[in-house]
Amino acid sequence: MKNILIPTHLSPDTEIAVRTAICSASGTGTEIMLLLTADAPTSESASALLRSMRHELTASQLSVLDDCRDVARKSGFSLKFHTQYSLSGPLLRNLLQAMETGLVIIPASYANSTQSTHTSCVKWLSLSKLPILQLSETATPELRKALLIENGLGQLPVHELQLQINRKLPIQIVSQANISSEEQSLRQLLSETIDLRDIDVLIHTRRTEKTGRRKNDAAFPESFGLSVLSVYENAI
């Protein structure tokens, strides 16, 4: 397992993302990085700009950061915090490479944010070849049972996909469904399967680096209110 990136604006659910990262990691030197993305403060003075950057975290954010550091320390993990201003696609790619990122975990509050810096970061992450675990609002740190949503686009064999996922996450595929954006009449059947098999995470694949997740492919799994693991089919 390489290192784990968590984009965040330090909402309380960041701690759940950190605990999920700890449960997912092998514990052999894995580092967790919290990435806070923000627009650069506007100031004509360089010194005023630096002061603004240094003191911009709220008391609530500082409390969340302290809690995350405490959780990581007690579990024997290294946790780093990085604030990135004026994030761009190329800059994010370089950051992911420099950090040797193997997994991205996105808290629900960040994924649902409408702030441009957050939506852009999520979009650029989806263009990477990294597995991306988007947590639900009710997520627990230990995700174990998965339903694979197959989109009919040359999916890897399930056993091979399972082996590759387990290099990153201790998640077991216990059920699968073939579905396309036109077959949403299966929603009730899938909901019953989720309840019956005690499924806590959905898995879907994305194939193209240039276009990232197709809107319909991503929106359908996310509509069930569970955490969603999105994997780049040929590069887990």
TrEMBL record:
This is Universal stress protein. SUPFAM superfamilies: Adenine nucleotide alpha hydrolases-like (SSF52402). InterPro entries: Rossmann-like_a/b/a_fold. It comes from Flavobacterium silvaticum. It comes from the Bacteria.
